[in-house]
Each structure stands twice: as structure tokens, then as C-alpha cells.
Amino acid sequence: MPFIELQRELETRATQGLLRRRRVLESPQGVHITVDGKPYLSFCSNDYLGLAHHPQLIAALQQGAQQHGVGAGASHLVSGHFDAHHELEQALAEFVGKPAALLFSTGYLANLGAVQALVGRGDTVYADKLNHASLNDAMLLSRAEVRRYRHNDTEQLEQLLQQAPGGRKLVITDTVFSMDGDLAPLPKLLALCERHDAWLLVDDAHGLGVLGAQGRGALAHFGLISPRIIYMATLGKAAGVSGAFVAAEQVVIDTLQQNARSYIYTTASPPALSTALLASLALMREEEWRREQLRKSIAQLRAGLSGSPWTLMPSSTPIQPLLVGGNEDAVALSEGLRARGIWVPAIRPPTVPQSTARLRISLSAAHSEADVAQLMEALHELARES
Known about the structure:
Blueprint: H1 2-15, E1 32-35, E2 38-42, H2 55-68, H3 76-80, H4 83-96, E3 100-104, H5 107-118, E4 124-128, H6 133-141, E5 145-149, H7 154-162, E6 169-174, H8 186-196, E7 199-203, H9 218-222, E8 229-234, E9 244-248, H10 250-259, H11 261-264, H12 271-286, H13 289-304, E10 311-312, E11 319-325, H14 327-339, E12 342-343, E13 346-347, E14 357-362, H15 369-385
Parallel strand pairs: 2-12, 4-5, 4-6, 6-7, 7-8
Antiparallel strand pairs: 1-2, 3-9, 8-9, 10-11, 11-14, 13-14
Helix pairs in contact: 2-12, 4-12, 5-6, 5-10, 7-8, 13-15
């Protein structure tokens, strides 16, 4: 029976400390949550600005549902493209400094659609080895030739670009790497794309709302403006709601509308979400204190854990990975925190390389100084017990 083989594979994962499990959240997303009936101080959400349960977004969502109903009812290209979607696309394009934008239901679908629509057989994709799984799957599905370069190694990338066999060239990269928290060298990547006539697709899932003036993202952070840049960001992290978008030159967006299968063949997201996201954009622009609070918490954490037996990996973003090493050790540390009412996930292979299991500490503007201090004290206590 094939089920026996599946069960053996699951048992093998369990013995290797790699078996994943879901936990049930019984409260709104936030710093203080209830999981499986127990209260926790949470450091595991991508709600970087603390907007997921903001009353203005809730009110906007309710208003949008009253006005547009619950479901879109069809794909964007049939009859599911509402005025709220259209207004949000225009607002997002302006926010990140691009001529046009296109909404997708998720960041995964946005990356699949964009890469598959722009390159194919006879073209080449150049990818950072630590890119998100959605970018990895997108380049494989595109059927383009794939060349991967060492993490943030622009010298190796240039060597690969010099060997380009012909056809279109597309460099794809995260801006903030989701498991390491470090930044891609976007200015250098863009310079290489200019030199070798390539596109640069950037996945700013963890940068929008956090980086740049008014949270306008990685392009604003680095001061980059170029028609070669194709910009993707998600709307369920710092923006606090759901969805994603691609922003680029009008001809690129028109091409995605015609060729991106994950856009064409997907029912549009509920228009009420777009109403909530318009309210979220306003808060991101206006409330700089949220990013300032993040910066303070990052500095506090890094200073407070400088003497611990585990190493905080280099990161100036809300993603603060605490390198542990072994899978079982990382899980044990996570469980030790959970026993003290603090929820920080253990990240293990294949999400990260072998022997680099870690705790992924995610900070939010909603965390107070006392919250961060509580986490640090618990880690120091666990270190003394180890």
C-alpha cells in the first residue's frame, strides 16, 4: 500500500526533528495571542507594523464588505475587477514609484505569474541561492535555463551573466531574505543588469512598510529608479491584510495581464480587502513612529543578547535569526520559551541549510520594551540551564 510508504517518510522526518505541525490561533494576530488555549507573548508573526488587528483596518474592511459584498465572484479578466481593486493598484504603483501595478491573491502566485510570463525556453534566470521557495518554483515552471549564484555574490553573478547564451535575462532576488534577515545588494545588482541588458525582479515581501521613507520599500531605501526593475511585494505582512502586487513599467504589467497564468485563472481577491489595504497604506505613510519603534526594538534585542551562547545573525530588519545549529537543539530552545509563555518558532532544514537550525525572532512595532526584555531574560535563563 502506498500509504505505508508515506507513513514511513513521516516517521523519518519525525526522527530527524523535521516534522512540522500546526497550532491553532484563537485570538486576533498580535503581540499577545492565545494558541491552543494558552496565552503567549508572540515573536513569530510577520505583522511588522502591528496593523493586522488595527481598528481602522477592521472598519475599512467592514465598510468594503457592505459596499462590495464578500466575494469577487470571478477572475479579474472576466467580471471580478472592482473599482476598489483598481484604486488600490493605482495607489500601490504610486507608493512604490512605478508606473503601474497588478494585484495578485498571494505573493506566491505573484512570483509564479511574473516569472512565467516574462521568460521561457531560450531565456535565462539568475537566482540567489537563498531566494524564497516561490521564486525557486517560479523559475523552474518558466522552463527557462536556471543559473544560481552564491548568496549576495555579485562577482559570481557577473561571471554568469557574461556567459549568457542569448535570449532574455532575468535576475531574481529577495530584498530582505526571510530566514536570514539580511538585505540584497540591490544597487550592485541593478548595475549588473544595466551592464548586461537584464531585468531585475525583486521580491520585497519583507521590505514593504518597513524599509524606506514612509515604508515605501527597498527601492526607496536604496534610492533606486529604473525601468529594468520589476517590483513584487506582499500585503499580508507589514500591510496587515492579504494579497500581493507586481509594479513595473506599463508594458510589463500589460504583458502580465495577458500571460500570467496565476493571474488569469484565479478568482480575484474579495474587493473588501482592497478597501482595507487603502486604509493600511495611509497608516504606513503617516505613522513613522511604527518604524522607529521597530528600530528601537532591534537595537535592544541585539544589545541584550550579545553575550548569549547562540549567535544573532547579521540583520538590521525585524527578522532576527538566532543561530542554534542542530535541529533538536533549536526545537528544544523553542519549547523552552513556549513553556515560559513565549512563542518563537524553530526553523529547520530544508527551509534553511543543514546545521543552521535557528529561532526566527520576528519583531513588531507593537512590541514594547518590556516585551523584548522578557524574551531576552527567558533566553538568558535557558542559557544558564543548558
